[in-house]
Design goal:
This protein has about 120 residues and is α+β, with helices and mostly antiparallel strands. It contains 4 helices and 3 strands; from the N terminus they run H-E-E-H-H-E-H. It has helices at about 1-25, 55-70, 70-80, 95-110; strands at about 35-40, 45-55, 90-95. Helix 1 crosses helix 3.
Length: about 120
């Protein structure tokens, strides 16, 4: 049963972090930044957010620097928006999986497969 509580809290934290990211005014933080994955510890003390920007890995790293600088403010806002017993300490990690996924999709779209061969 406790796993459901952690999963629900993780989704709530992810949703609120996304909203907070959109409101930050730091020019280092990309407006196209998204949370790829969020890992919350079992005791809710720590949360590790893997973030990625569509603009590329350099912009993601720059955004992570801005997020680390604003971590205290983000944690405070998270505590104000969610009723949690313990607001987790936030850690941000740059992840390039969005760019990697876009590259794979682009390569797949370049493959020219005729419609009649797709069925086989």
């Amino acid at each position: 049963m406790p796993g459901h509580k952690i999963d629900r809290a993780t989704e709530d934290i992810k949703r609120e972090l996304t909203a907070i990211f959109r409101e930050l005014k730091d020019p280092r933080i990309s407006k196209l930044l998204s949370i790829v994955r969020l890992e919350v510890s079992g005791d809710m003390s720590y949360a590790k957010a893997f973030v990625s920007a569509i603009e590329g890995q350099a912009q993601t790293v720059q955004s992570v620097a801005g997020l680390k600088a604003a971590a205290g403010f983000i944690r405070h806002e998270l505590g104000a928006r969610l009723s949690l017993r313990k607001v987790p300490e936030l850690r941000f990690v740059a992840d390039d999986s969005i760019r990697h996924s876009a590259d794979i999709a682009q390569k797949l779209s370049r493959l020219d497969i005729p419609a009649d061969e797709e069925q086989t």
